[in-house]
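Can anyone check this?
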Amino acid sequence: MKSGYPIIPIAADPLSQSAHFLFAQIDAQGNFIYANAPLTALLSLSLDENPSQIPADQCMHHSDRALFREKLALCFSQPGIPQHCTIAYQTTHPVTIQWEMITGNDTADWIQAIGYRLSTEAADIHKARQKTELFISYLDAITDGFFAVDRNWTFIRVNSLFEKVSGYRQEEMLGRNFWELFPDVSEQPYAAAMRKAYETSETVSFEQPWPPAYHFTVSVFPSREGLACYFLDISAQKKHQLALEDSQVKLKAILDSTTDVNVLISADKKVLNFNQMAAQYARIYFNRSIAVGDDFIQFVMPETLEAFLNHFNQALNGEKTTIERPLPMPNGDMFWFELLYYPVYSEAGQLLGVAMNITNIDGRKKTEMKLLQQYDKLREIAYLQSHEARAPLSNILGLLNVLMLYKEKYNDPEFLQIIDYLNNSAHRLDEVIQRIVLTTRD
């Protein structure tokens, strides 16, 4: 041993010379203070170097370095309490060492580590145990549920989410038969699905409601050892889906209760949705049923095809258009309809297609036309009154003006009274005709 190295405690001195045990002293920074000959040879350490410059983890497998640092820190934070760890080293040949590390007292600034090399079989068992523990910790950390049963339906593994969902603790399930805890009843989807996976050795996926709070999508994977079941909580998605389906049912009920024809058409002119009235019109006008996926062009009258394509393309470009036009009925009569085209977007703003709404406005339109006819009649009457009646009245007013010039030459009171009466009546009639003309102009 090179001079200047710290003195080995008497109790540990025999170990420093042991050919079977590995012995080392390590400071708080994780560097070697001392390493006995077997450890030096095993890890190919150079005794000519100052050990304090050699990190104790320099040959460790990268996956074990964090564990070593953790145990080293525990030694100093919990003096006198042994810390155990199994560390793999990467030297000329893979080496695995089982260590026990401990500090001598509260004031010690180094720890002593005693270890022995594991046989290849023991190292393999340790690695397998490490991988198993890592896999178990992974299963407990994931948000998915997991459990596994052997070929006898005995629980061999469950994770924390399955504990929470099932209501059973892990120790209550491991070693128990699956069907003892979860009955094999026909109304539960899991029963038939797990039986099918077991009997056919095929992966089976299904949805499993778990009242009151959960809904899962489950996949069952068979193997020679048994069944592994993974389940994902889709409660939020299912709740959203049910709410969406409920909204769709209500919307369809509203659309089906209206007397308007309503059709949602994709950009490539395929039927995406339609209401009951649209189905009725398709049978009446085209003698065929309408279905989702149909080419909508076959439900457009040839004489209106050009106008339809024009307004449809305007709606695809984001425009909303409304037109009124008469359309022929099967019996040959003409009925007026209002046709509304407008774009329909998803919540994300993506164009879904064009909605076409057709409203029968025949009653309203014919009433409007009748009112227009009546208005034209009134205008005609006003014209007659303003021109045909106005001309004679103008003559009367002219004669009255002449008679008024002779008024002073006549002393007959009765004659004068008649002249005044005619003059007043003629002017009142003139005012009435003027009001009629002004009213019709407004």
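Reply from J.R.: I decoded it. The mean pLDDT is 82.
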